[in-house]
Structure formats: structure tokens, C-alpha cells
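re: ur question from earlier - yeah i can do the single chain one, its not a big deal. heres the input i used so u can compare w yours
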Amino acid sequence: MSENILEIKKLSKDYGDFVLDKISFFLPRGVIMGLIGENGAGKSTTINCILNETQKSGGEILIFGKDHIANEIEIKDKLGIVFDENHFPDIFTPEEIGKFMSGIYSGWEWPLYRQFLEKFELPKDKKIKEFSKGMKVKLAFAVALSHKAELLILDEATSGLDPIIRDDVLDMLIDFVQDESHSVLVSSHITSDLEKVADYITFIHKGKLIFTYDKDNLVDNYGIVSCGAAVFDTLDKSEIIAYRKEDYQFKVLVKDRNKAAKKYPNAIVNPSTIEEIMLFYVKGEMQ
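and the output i got, formated as C-alpha cells:
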């Protein structure tokens, strides 16, 4: 069994007006990876290339240690996929979707599927066209978690859910990876969700990979230095990732907030959230 459930090596996709530029990252087994970036950064392009819904321009994608195109049917039998939009025919009911999926997935589990329908309060004989957006997303989760998938791929999948159901789904993702052979790749703009469940964060900006880091490293070490112009001028520029000038002060993103707090006692140094880190890279000024 491959140690990495997913390997992306120098993945490229050239649309002409947008280029996904040689993205590389690895997703180990037993972990949840959050994929972040602004709208249009390349997150969905990356996921669509992984699923072979979009033909890549270059690079290599291995899933379960196998080429994602040469072994596509075998691989997709063990993938659970949830998008932010409904991909099921509106004229079907959840019961009919189950019958359809039982013929596609070799590991389909009817009892588990029906448990999820009950948990998510989804009427099995009601047509999907009568479902709300949140109900449609919950149905997609029910399908994704009911066929012994080893890798879940979620593209903004929790955005249509109310906070209570979203929290239930996040708990299920944590449970899903407990056996250390399953993994989750989740693209989301709800960075607070990722702070709760992700082990790694991969950040894409304008088609380029900015970083893949251990989430705890980001949350525990990164920080924001708030200071006036006089202190800002004394900062070691090599320690500045990005900065933003506000009315009467500078706010500076640094990788080691404890070091910054000791070095600049006249500045205020606070922890940074994943959302703040992303905003500094996207909207801040670089040295």
C-alpha cells in the first residue's frame, strides 16, 4: 500500500488566460488536507484534473499509487466525491439514486446509505428536484460515504449546509480518517472548518502553489505584528512574508511570532488564522 494516497507532480493546465503552473503536493494516508485559495486560484481546476474531468496539460497524478487515467475505473470505485452543486438527475429519488449507485460501486452498502438518509432527514421517495441546496449536498455526502471509499474529494461541499449539519459532516470526516488508511482532500473557503479538521493546508494563488504546510505549524507559529511606522522600519525584512498598511499602523505577517515578540517588544504580536494568512498573501504587499 502506497504511503501517499494521492500524489500530484508538476500538474499543469493551460487555459490561455489562466495557467495552473506545475503544482506539486502529496496527500498521505490517514489525514485531511484543506485546499485553499481565492476564487479562480485553481482549486477546482486541480480537483477536476485529479478526477480526469479536465484534461491536464502536463504533470503526473497518482491515486492509490496508480496513474489516474490508466486506472481510472478501478480508482473511481474507491473515491467519494462531493461538489457544491447537485450532480444527480432531478427526476430521481434518493432510493432510485441508491439503486443506480449499487450498480456502479462494488462496495455499495445499502444499510449504511439508509442510515445516512435517516441521519440527514432525506425522504427516500421524494424527487431530488424538490430538495433544497443543502439537502442535495447531504445526499451527495450520503452516497460518498456509503461505498467503502478510501479517498474523499470535496469541492466547496459544505458551503450549502447549515452550521449544525456542517459540524456533523466535519465530525464524520474526522471519523473517516481514524483508521489511517483513508484520506480527505477538501477545498473550502470556510477556513474555520479547516482549522477544526485539517492536518495539512495546501494554498494555491493565481495558479501557483504557495505552500503545503502542517496546519498546526501554521496556527501555532505564524503571527501578525501590529506596529507603527518607526517600528516597521526596524523590522528584519527577511522575516516579513507580507504586510498591509492601515490608517495609523502596519500589520505584518511573520512565520515565527514568538521570535518576533521577543525581538520587537514595542510591537503587538498576535496569532494568525488561516483566513488571515491567505488574505495577506492575496492582498498584502510583499517585500
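The chain has two domains: 4-214, 222-283. not sure if urs matches, ping me
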